[in-house]
């Protein structure tokens, strides 16, 4: 239901960008708020997500 509402307010492409950035924000907030240690896998995942976003925006 929230996905449909968000898609109505902003275009579908921008909505999908927010969905892809969500894990990156989660990692950052977990480090800042919960004081969790950042792992190599979360760094690699964050980098891959950001590269994917850059590549998808250039197309």
Automatic annotation (TrEMBL):
Entry's InterPro entries?
A: EamA_dom (IPR000620), EmrE-like (IPR037185)
Gene3D superfamilies in UniProt: 1.10.3730.20
TM ranges: 12-32, 38-56
Q: Is the keyword Thylakoid in the record? A: no
**SUPFAM superfamilies to which the protein is assigned, alphabetical:** Multidrug resistance efflux transporter EmrE
Domain EamA: residue ranges: 1-55
The answer to whether UniProt assigns keyword Transmembrane helix to this entry is: yes
Q: Which keywords does the record carry?
A: Membrane, Transmembrane, Transmembrane helix
State the family named in the UniProt similarity comment for this chain: Belongs to the EamA transporter family.
The protein here is known as: EamA family transporter
Organism field: Anaerostipes hadrus
